Every structure is written in C-alpha cells, then in structure tokens.
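(Fold this chain)
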Amino acid sequence: MKYRALLVASLLLAGVDARAVTLPTPIAAEVYVKGEAKATALRGKLTSYDESGFTIHTPQNEDKTLNWTDITPASAYALRLKTVDRQQAQSWIELGKFAWSLNLKDQAKAALNSGKASKESRAACDKGDRALSARKANEALNRLKP
C-alpha cells in the first residue's frame, strides 16, 4: 500500500515528459531486442530518448530507433537508469514511473524510495491522501442526500 501511495504521489508531482531528450554526450548502451526465440543484443551509444522510445548509434554508423517495448524490460530500465540526474528528485520519480509501467515493481520502489524522490513523493502522497479523503467524504455525503 505504501508503494502504491508513492506511485500516486509521483503521478501528482510530475506529468509525463513527452519531450525528446538529445544527449549532449552519447552514453554507452547495450540493450536486448525482443525476438521470437530469444533476445538479441544491440550495442552502441544512446543519443536520444523520449517517453515512447530511443535512438542508439551503432558501431556500424547506423542510427537505430526503437520503442521501449521492443526491448526487454530489464534492459529498458538499465538504459533509462543511465540517464537519471541523481541529484534531481524529478529524475528519480520519472524513472520510478517508467519502471512501474514495465511491471518492474522492485525497481520502481527503489527509484521512488531514493533519497531525493522519496522526500517529494511523501509530501505529495500526504497531499494526495488528503484530496482522496475529501473526495470520498463528498461522495458519501452525496449518497446520503435524498
């Protein structure tokens, strides 16, 4: 329940960032692309990403653009973790939401419980719990009215 509240809090704190991020310095990347039989490795440099996918510049001098869902959840999380600004709570919150969307609950909990994110998440959680309680109280009052 605590982690669900933290997730709700993080959603209250931050909208989904749909902007593409182009990295000033590409980051070494290795992801595993899902396949019918098994996943295949893709190596290169992460050059940009957004909420739906990313681009890796390969050693063959090709830019490969993939959706996050094209790769294994573990490699998607590992790649996004490399982009986190470890001093910014917002980065940890976005990573937690991303992990949650991939059904990586342990990783989501870890990101949302990081020192920076958890302080802001707890504050938003308290605010969210108060708003939820007020809404439930209003609903109950409306049911009592004739």
Observations:
- The longest helix spans residues 115-144.
- Residues 2-122 form one domain.
